[in-house]
Amino acid sequence: MQLGDLELHLLVTDHWKADGGLMFGVVPKVLWEKHKPPDANNMIDCACVCLIARINGRVIVCETGIGNKLSEKRARQVALREPEDILHHLRRLGIRADEVDAVVTTHLHWDHAGGLTRRNEMGKLELTFPNARHFVQRTEWDFALHPDVRSATGYVIDDFTPLADGHQAVEFLDGDAEVLPGVHIRHVGGHTPGSQILILQSGEFGCAVTGDLVCQTPHLRVPWNMAADIEPLRVFEHKARLFEEAEKHRWLLVLSHETDQPAGYLEEGGRWRPEPRLM
Ligand SMILES: [Zn+2]
């Protein structure tokens, strides 16, 4: 769909499952299960939602999903199914991997950064987008290399270290930045130290990719957050700010793991109005 000068496409690269407790933290199950019914193992359906944008002749990819490097064991644990190659999706849009100018990943967890690198037919690790500038908060990079004991399982170094080792594909950010005209990155932290959201703007139009600040539609309630967040109070603060702006300026929101119409608008009173044109 077109929003001002922004051409937007949504891609769902992966369908998988996550533990309901992981997704909703201290929110009582009797409340969240009405919105996201769990299976017999308490797992709920998740998607990996990626946004492809063209703005001023540049191609931007935000979020890259799980990618093709997950071990069989891990893939089974998360019930990964229908993994679709992001490059395959791009080809359908007439975009080659080497034509992507900028890649933004909201943080470096395996389910967001997995697609930054890939195994080619020879089994060799390579960058998925060889000519792109990859924007990452320096705090996220440092934490991903030296995570605390609880966060360690969230990071896979093959996902991101090749961007810096042997390539100069990564650009470290220290906080908020406008990395290309109309392409704003906001450091929010909370979920991980260097979590960031992408805000694309064209005139009066705007679109925000929330990352795990807002995973699914039930997380549109400010205090409903993930157990994995390292700083929940910071999550609440940035969510409240984003919701206020999104409602006021009618920004299109793209939620990281929603399976059912993951893009939409927040209306008065916090009501969600999905935007079907993006699917
Ligand atoms: Zn995630």
Q: What is the N-to-C order of secondary-structure elements (H for helix, E for strand)?
A: EEHHEEHHEHEEEHHEEEEEHEEE
Strand percent estimate: 25-35%
CATH architecture: 4-Layer Sandwich
Give the bound compounds. Answer: zinc ion
The first-to-last residue Cα distance is 9 Å
Q: For the largest beta sheet, what order do the strands appear in spatially?
A: 1-2-3-4-5-8-9
Total strands: 16
Describe this structure in a few short sentences:
With 279 residues, the protein is of the alpha+beta class. It is 20% helix and 30% strand. The longest helix has 18 residues, at 232-249.
Give a written overview of the molecule:
There is one protein chain. It is globular and about 50 Å long. The chain has helices at 20-24, 29-32, 72-77, 86-92, 110-113, 138-145, 157-160, 232-249, and strands at 2-3, 6-19, 43-55, 58-62, 102-104, 117-119, 125-127, 133-137, 170-173, 177-180, 183-187, 196-202, 205-209, 252-254, 263-267, 271-274. The strands form three sheets. The chain has a seven-stranded mixed sheet. Strands 10-11-12-13-14-15-16 form a seven-stranded mixed sheet. The chain starts with a strand and ends in a 5-residue tail after the last strand. A hairpin with an 8-residue loop joins strand 14 (252-254) and strand 15 (263-267). The relative contact order is 0.17. 20% of the residues lie in helices and 30% in strands. The chain contains eight helices and 16 strands. It is of the alpha+beta class and 279 residues long. The mean pLDDT is 95. It has one domain (2-278): Ribonuclease Z/Hydroxyacylglutathione hydrolase-like (Metallo-beta-lactamase, Chain A, 4-Layer Sandwich), CATH 3.60.15. Bound molecules: zinc ion (ZN).
